[in-house]
Design goal:
This protein has about 300 residues and is an all-alpha fold. Helix content is about 85%, strand content about 0%. The protein has helices spanning about 5-50, 55-60, 65-80, 85-95, 105-110, 115-150, 160-170, 170-200, 205-220, 225-245, 245-265, 265-275, 275-300.
Length: about 300
């Protein structure tokens, strides 16, 4: 069959552009909303410094890293607000919901033995996947960080060093909330919940895993975190694909962040893990975890 060349190119080009825009729009919306919120907060911060005088200004300057971190966390939450309806729609397309809905007792009374067995099997696999996700998140994040440190790659970027100093400069309790809850939630909503789901729907799951990971790495803005983020981003998308649960990618992200953040303050632990042997063990556990995820995904 022959078709007119001009019409075919025009239609395909328009379709490709529309798909690309649908994938990138959530990130652009998040980015613009985040920065708009940050400008407003920065203006409010400056106004309070001028209002309450020099002593207040000195206090805020002394805790600048924490103040900046809190401002960033608030803006992150504001940034995902317009993305949440998109997340709800993408999860609906996959048959997921934003909350866990337990089976009601009334329904349980009418279930057959086969349905009971299936319910227990699904619940058991979900618990196994959750435990496996925690182990995988710890081993991958720490193993990868050990590898980047041992190879000297982590010290190759001055931009990364500045970012790391700022991140680890916040008060510890504040950092736990920022990096263990707020940051993983926002990034998973944007990159796995919306962008990955759109990529797998519009193109293919394999492309979704690869491209969403690369976009997640680029989002971090420096080479070191870019490589780290791209690899973990692909792994989180793979975990999401195999588990079929958005909550698993969030759990992985939160645990990985907390593992790295807390270990950075424990020099004794780093002295054990950030060695060739420690790195090899962590990465071996991670590889085994990936194989288990693949196996559980097939069973599910």
């Amino acid at each position: 069959m022959m078709v007119e060349k001009g019409k075919t190119c025009g239609t395909d080009g328009q379709s490709s552009f529309r798909k690309a825009w649908e994938v990138l729009f959530p990130y652009l919306l998040y980015y613009l909303t985040y920065n708009a919120a940050y400008l407003i907060l920065a203006f409010a911060y400056q106004a309070t410094v001028e209002r309450f005088g020099e002593g207040y200004g000195q206090f805020m300057t002394a805790h600048a890293a924490t103040v900046t971190g809190v401002m960033g966390g608030l803006c992150t939450l504001v940034g995902i607000l317009p993305i949440l309806p998109m997340l709800k729609e993408e999860l609906r397309e996959r048959g997921e919901t934003l909350h866990f809905a337990p089976l009601k007792a009334v329904g349980a009374a009418g279930r057959t033995d086969q349905e009971e067995k299936l319910t227990k099997l699904v619940g058991g696999n979900a618990r196994k996947m959750a435990v496996l996700t925690v182990i995988l998140a710890c081993s991958v994040s720490l193993g990868f960080n050990a590898l980047l440190t041992l190879t000297g790659f982590a010290d190759s970027s001055q931009t990364y060093q500045k970012v790391a100093d700022r991140q680890y400069g916040v008060a510890f309790a504040v950092g736990l909330v920022l990096y263990g809850l707020i940051s993983p939630l926002a990034e998973e909503v944007v990159f796995r919940g919306v962008i990955y789901n759109r990529l797998r729907r519009l193109y293919h799951p394999v492309m979704g895993i690869a491209v969403s990971g690369l976009l997640f790495g680029a989002f971090h803005g420096n080479l070191v975190q870019g490589v780290y983020g791209a690899c973990l981003g692909m792994l989180m998308a793979y975990l999401y694909e195999k588990s079929g649960k958005f909550g698993m990618s969030f759990l992985f992200h939160a645990v990985a962040n907390l593992a790295v953040y807390t270990t950075a303050r424990l020099e004794g632990v780093q002295g054990i893990l950030f060695t060739p042997v420690g790195c090899a063990v962590l990465l071996a556990v991670a590889a085994g975890g990936v194989l288990m995820v693949k196996r559980l995904g097939k069973e599910g």
